[in-house]
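Hey team,

Filing this mostly as a record. A colleague (T.K.) asked me to run one chain through the structure pipeline before their review meeting, and I want the input and output archived in the tracker in case anyone asks later how it was produced. No errors, nothing strange. Just documentation.

Input sequence:
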Amino acid sequence: MQILVCPDKFKGSLTAKEVCKAIDKGLKSFDPSIETILLPLADGGEGTLDVLESALSIDRVALTVSDPLFRPIDAYYLRDGSRAFIEMALASGLQILNESEKNPLNTTTYGTGEMIRHALDHGAEEIFLLIGGSATNDGGIGMAEALGYEFETGTDVEFRSVGGSLADIVAINQSNRHHRIDKVQFTVLSDVKNVLLGAEGAAYIYGAQKGADGEAIEQLDYGLTNLANLLNNENENQEGSGAAGGLGYGAMSFLDAKVQSGIDTILEIVNFDENSKDVDLVITGEGKLDGQSLEGKVISGVIKVCQKEYIPIGIICGFVEEETRELLRGQVFDIQSLLTSDITLAYALENAGELTESRVLDLIQNFKTRKP
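Output structure:
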């Protein structure tokens, strides 16, 4: 029997690679003759670079850039020939800040722009931007400033490319922008569908989790509206323009980037079709299996491919919402959750590896029993 093991990370406990190893260990303890293909996955958000490093022969490029508060931080991106993969969270991510520092009025994507600039300076011809987990709501002006765009306010006060400065911009000068921008293909990997402005926009939907109160959210949305009026390109109405505090919009507007489904693109890059060819079973999973899992996340992407090829699917997850379990009935043969009525969340997080091995035994036994 050959099984493709292709989970996402279990956030807060295991990386995707660690989940793969735990599932593999459980399968081999059930039957040492089982052949496994281990293919950790991600949807274009945090952890995607780790997945790409596991799947590809790829180089890590280390550099020091600015964090969300303009402090120096060590970061890296990946190079695969002329392709560069840049994860904004490494420079502009929410996880970099402590609770008292979280305030999208004061944060910037400048460091993400510095990584892009470095890739441009070193000959990249195709750049993928992975834009999950941001601490920012600056509409991408920080990124743009790092690439040579100049934002004018009509005053002598030094401009800071943060969310709180968006409303102060009166003109944008692009005459000194990086000379290679037009020669490079930019692709944003994101499954966020939100537009830039209004009740379903970047500030109102995601501002609070980045530290904004009600007044700040209104100020940020007003500032993003000002930016959209100045650029006047209607990108603010495009799906994904509200991703990462408007970095989706900034990438569209300042880099002429296209936005693609993260999981679909990652599946293509890691040759998922070839890896799933002729397998008897696919086991995937993620930390929390809920409604969002079915909208552009790893599990939805894997199910879509496997259903076309009539490959049976099993899921291992940290926790499953019962409504989602019902929605997946008939699409997957089994869902095993680490968290059960007799196991606490703290215990599940602390012992995720061992619990994953145990749940795999139940899953493969169910597969053997149900397989015609």
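Quick notes for T.K.: The two ends are 14 Å apart (CA to CA). The CA atoms of residues 66 and 72 lie 5 Å apart.
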